[in-house]
UniProtKB/TrEMBL annotation:
Protein origin, superkingdom: Bacteria
Protein name per the record: Uncharacterized protein
Amino acid sequence: MPTSYKKVDVKRLLECLCSKTGESLDYYGLGQISEIVSGSISHKYLYDNLYRKTQTGSGDDEIRLAPNKVDELTRFLGYQNFSSFLTSIKMPLDPVLKSLEGSYYSYVRKSDNIGTLLCSPVCIEEIENQVILKLRGPNWEYVGKLKLVDGCLFCTMRSEESKKSFHHVYKVGKGGFPEVLMGLFTGVSTANNPIAGRCVLIKQAEQFDKLQNQKMSIAEMDGSQNQEYKKLATYFKTFEDNNLQINKPVGFDIDDLIP
């Protein structure tokens, strides 16, 4: 059953298709786009049903199109459907959030006195007009939505497998395109105890799927010729400056405050 769409919204869809593919908004360019999108989207459909019908009249005028074909085009652009595409157009993301897209290494100091850094791959990407942070641990993957408030990033990451959550807060400022983000985390340890500490995100040139989980000795990093490792070692050197944990509860009364 055909559905009515505003011409101005269909024009935006065509413009975004041209932007993504690098093709021109004309007969030839739409032919190229139909080959790139493939599926059920023909050259004739793009040119006759979308392009030509939007070239006359008011932008508020409506045209009737097959919703499955329109949604196929919006999925090619990375949206679940036409409705989510319109939301992204009418409520654009903050440019600072957009600037964070890419791959990173996350560094936190392990909650013991040995002096070990836990290094985890992180991907920040836009998905349906939201900026999502994905952290791949050695056993589980954590995913959460980034929010920007007063120059700080907030993210509660959750693992569906372990049902555990970690909350991260990073200082980002207003300039955008940071190479290093410093923040704090709170969460629960593998022994199910509350923990907190400092964390660092460092932008990487490699793709997310190429990054590897690592356990790194702070002492060895401090003696390395790698200047980034040396600075990380200095930052995370002492337990007291980087990690917080509670006393082990026994009676869950006031006496637990004194170890």
